[in-house]
């Protein structure tokens, strides 16, 4: 008989046991527990048929229709589960921990696979993850103007033993009009939230969690309100690096991209830059003067960032002047500064 486990135990077991999501492909594509395999008990079309019968005729006719559909596929389900199982164990969930996961768990147990069912299903995972954000006791925000190298600094902060979550890495976007360049295609917002929750499961919430300062949206992904509200209240370590150093970093980061892509990014912020600045930036881009292009675009990004920073409480912002673009050195300075607060 399958064993039922709560979300916390499910996550611990998932470190060594494969997770099988038995929801439809459409549900899975919209969002799933990171690393899960999809063995859908119904296709998208079959799920719609059963759901329609349930609404119009009731539970029993829907169950019998489901049995007609699933009966021919039981062997395939069992064989797939055997392939996925590790040490002959498997974790199973559906949307709410109901009939779909119970049916598949029965099948897997019947063919000899030790099976665990997630109580409350995928919905419980989502609810638990959002609650977990609110239990975070100490968030540290790394702020600073565009081109300050915040992402690299955070990587070095992590190398020094601190807890870091890379929001932009999870979103596959750097958060600006140029943010999609060189990145993978962004996932659904639900999947971004799931990936973020999955990272939060790994944290010790009694210790500081370092995050980069972000607006509510990162490209087409949105930081969950439960976390974003905490980020807006958290202490900000604002690094201040000279503009000429920031320009050099931006040129280094974006010089590898084709001019048409960079031109398109400039035009995305055209209304905010102003027509004359857009025209000048494009002309300079064509001439290969990327440092001057960066200087023009920073006039917008610096103003935009400082506008967002002004909305925070002054006593939560700590300015830290840095004179070099040295992520390893700057990471140590920031850690020492935070510990001295």
Question: Briefly, what CATH class of the largest domain?
Answer: Alpha Beta
Q: Segments where pLDDT lies below 50 for 5+ residues?
A: none
Terminus-to-terminus distance: 54 Å
- How much strand content do the residues show? 5-15%
CATH topology of the largest domain: Rossmann fold
Helix content: 40-55%
How many structural units, i.e. domains?
2
Number of strands: 12
Average predicted confidence as pLDDT: 91
The appropriate CATH architecture of the largest domain is 3-Layer(aba) Sandwich
Number of helices: 17
The sequence of SSEs as H and E is EHEHEHHHEHEHEHEHHEEEHEHHHHHEH
Strand order of the largest sheet: 1-5-4-2-3
| Major beta sheet summary | 5 strands, parallel
Overall 3D geometry? elongated
What are the main properties of this structure?
single chain; 13% strand; 17 helices; alpha/beta; elongated; five-stranded parallel beta sheet; Rossmann fold; 341 residues; 2 domains; Oxidized Rhodanese, domain 1
Could you characterize what this model shows?
This protein is of the alpha/beta class and 341 residues long. It has 2 domains: 3-129, Rhodanese-like domain (Oxidized Rhodanese, domain 1, 3-Layer(aba) Sandwich), CATH 3.40.250.10; 135-340, Rossmann fold, CATH 3.40.50. Helices cover 55% and strands 13% of the residues. It is built from 17 helices and 12 strands. Strands 1-5-4-2-3 form a 5-stranded parallel sheet. A 5-stranded parallel sheet has the order 7-8-6-11-12, sandwiched between helices. Strands 9-10 form a two-stranded antiparallel ribbon. The protein is elongated and about 70 Å long.
